[in-house]
UniProtKB/TrEMBL annotation:
The keyword Transmembrane helix does not apply. Residues 81-157 form the High potential iron-sulfur proteins family profile domain. This is High potential iron-sulfur proteins family profile domain-containing protein. SUPFAM superfamilies: HIPIP (high potential iron protein). GO terms for biological process: aerobic electron transport chain.
Length: 178
């Protein structure tokens, strides 16, 4: 599968996820929407409080803005992910666009399955400089291995797709064509 096919597949996945989330928010009724809004506000407040704690954990000399959107240290800029996918700093998604959050929060929200996190994602680039954070081949900024986003893909799945592409088995590409 070519890089453009992979990028297109990722985009379609994100667009579909965003549509589902948007529709889910629009379908509330019987006064439940106000209750949901209140809960979302409370959750945001808790997340902001946790964000304050998270600021204390930032790598030395890294601002909150750099932590969220980069740039990342040089050793990550074009590094290979755990599934040998090269990071292209010019073709990265924002954390916001990928529903980026702590893996435990994603599981609680029903977005991820238990055990799915950046640390075991095919796109993850593990810590190379000892600060406890890595990077991602598809998402900008610093990445904690305990985070999660909608691009999560198992390493085994990614390796199987790569092998399929190397074998010339173009049959796998057909399932992504719309």
């Amino acid at each position: 599968m070519s890089l453009s096919d992979e990028t297109r597949r990722r985009f379609l996945h994100l667009a579909g996820s965003g549509t589902v989330v948007g529709l889910a928010g629009c379908l509330g009724g019987d006064g439940e929407q106000a209750e949901t809004t209140t809960t979302a506000t409370e959750t945001t407040t808790e997340a902001e409080e946790e964000g304050d704690e998270h600021e204390e954990e930032l790598p030395e000399g890294v601002s909150e803005e750099e932590f969220v959107s980069g740039p990342v240290p040089e050793e990550y800029r074009t590094a290979l992910s755990q599934a040998n996918e090269r990071r292209n700093p010019d073709e990265l998604f924002t954390k916001e666009a990928t529903q980026f959050q702590e893996a435990t929060d994603a599981v609680e929200a029903g977005l991820a399955q238990e055990g799915q996190n950046c640390g075991n994602c095919a796109e993850y680039i593990p810590d190379k400089n000892g600060d406890g954070f890595g990077a991602c081949a598809r998402v900008e900024g610093y990445i904690d291995p305990e985070d999660w986003c909608s691009l999560w893909e198992s390493i085994e799945e990614a390796e199987a797709e790569q092998e399929e592409g190397e074998d010339g088995g173009g049959g796998g590409e057909a399932e992504y064509v719309l």
